[in-house]
Fold this sequence. Notes:
Layout (H helix, E strand, L loop, with lengths): L2 E5 L5 H8 L3 E6 L3 H10 L4 E3 L15 E4 L24 H11 L3 E7 L7 H10 L2 E9 L10 E9 L13 H6 L8 E4 L2 E4 L5 H5 L35 H15 L4 H14 L9
Parallel strand pairs: 1-2, 1-4, 2-3, 4-5
Antiparallel strand pairs: 5-7, 6-7, 8-9
Helix pairs in contact: 1-8
Amino acid sequence: MLTVGSLFSGAGLCDLGLTWAGFEHQWFCEIDPFCRAVLTRHWPDTSIYNDVSSLKGAELPPVDVLCGGFPCQDVSSAGARAGIKQGTRSGLWYEYARLIKEIRPKYAIIENVRGLLSCGIEIVLQDLAAIGYDAEWEVLPAAALGAPHHRERVFIVAYPRGRFPDRGHRLLSPLQRDLGDVNQSLQLFDWLGLRIDRARKTSALEVYPGPVLCRVDDGSAAGLDGADGHGSGHPHKIGRVDMSTARAWAPRLKALGNGITPQQSYAIAACILQAEGLDVPPMP
């Protein structure tokens, strides 16, 4: 069993995929109080730290894998593209790199938006090389795993130099075999047999009139969508939503929007398990 330390954990969406693959979390690090509450609920016996800059590798339980997506705001094509610099949010990459150097895990899983490829990946790779880690990467869209949207994410997997003496070995090579054609058109893609034209806002509604997201469920049927964050105890109603309920939804939707689909991290974890010669448990 591979153990995990999770950085920039969010609501644990990446971590859920690793859990499906049989990885065992030793600790999390997340600054957002709402997300920490979600992590506490689903991993109640696991330590959660709240500031990556205060973590010291020597003081943390040892782990085989470090995982996490450092903030994307300064590398995203939707932002100002300030890049990975000290003092920017994406500059927290330097804390991630420091912890890789201090902890020396077998693997580091680094996730970010596709914009990293044109704004900062050279810094990430140079820093990894400087601390003695080789790396490989792949763009993995959520659509390749059944989601109704592309949601492309760059996954970098780093490991100590020399871990795989065969220079032709590629840890992420099983992705193509397991997923098939993941390089779908940026404009047209299939989801559950439906052909969606991303250039037209109405296309998804035309081919799939049903709701994609009906409600945000915190795992308790009796605790949905209450204004206090703990559920109202009343049956959920589709239709008009009052402002108190909308406020309760806001942090949940933000947490989902900042995360990945767990199926993406599960696919990366499956590659690591195969490289280790371990069985890959079926995804729930």
